[in-house]
Amino acid sequence: MLSAFAPLREKIHAIFKFKEGGKLSAQTKPQVGIVMGSDSDLEVMKAASDILQEFGVAFEMTVASAHRSPQRAANWATTARERGIKVIIAGAGHAAHLAGAMAAHTSLPIIGVPIDSSCLQGLDALLATVQMPPGIPVATMAIGKPGARNAGILAVQILALADDDLAARFEAFKQDMAVKVEQKAKKLEESL
């Protein structure tokens, strides 16, 4: 079974250029779980993991399909809390029921990322992710890489509620964005 995931593991290692020991951040126990419906979603979901790495938040990443491997998806969500996961980011395209499936199997916060992998350019995934029934919430981000990046940012914000150091780093991140906008505005205004 594990050998079936060897190609995905190789892609992940190549994209993240794993350091010795395979650690993605300074923390040893992952706090965020990233799950995607297919390994073809990895390039989009990397935007979430990039943000987590930027903030030094440990994460785990896997593939589980709500339709093709429903038992795997359910098991992964059900055991997330005992693995130390505090937030789940779920990305999927097409019918995109993965985030909802995660929410059905855990009480952890779920952040959904609709992926633009169909002929409908992600609109199908957006609607499937955002239209959850009452009592099964999924915080739904924008379609594609911008949504995946925001999913990582939202996960950091959630974790920062209980981590003063992370909260301070997040405030610095927000201030840095504001400074960059001021610099761009000044440059534009001076060029006119």
Describe the structure.
The structure is a single chain. Helix content is 48%, strand content 13%. The protein is α/β, with parallel strands linked by helices. The chain has a single domain (2-161), classed as 3-Layer(aba) Sandwich (Rossmann fold). Helix 2 (42-54) runs parallel beside helix 6 (145-160) and helix 3 (70-78) crosses helix 4 (98-105). Residues 13-27 have low confidence and may be disordered.
What descriptors fit this protein?
192 residues, alpha/beta, Rossmann fold
Distance between the termini: 62 Å
Shape by Cα distribution: globular
Widest sheet, order of strands: 2-1-3-4-5
Tally of strands: 5
Q: Can you identify the CATH class?
A: Alpha Beta
Largest sheet entry: 5 strands, parallel
Radius of gyration: 17 Å
Percentage of residues in strands: 5-15%
Contiguous low-pLDDT stretches (5 residues minimum) are 13-27
At CATH level 2, the architecture is: 3-Layer(aba) Sandwich
Helix content: 40-55%
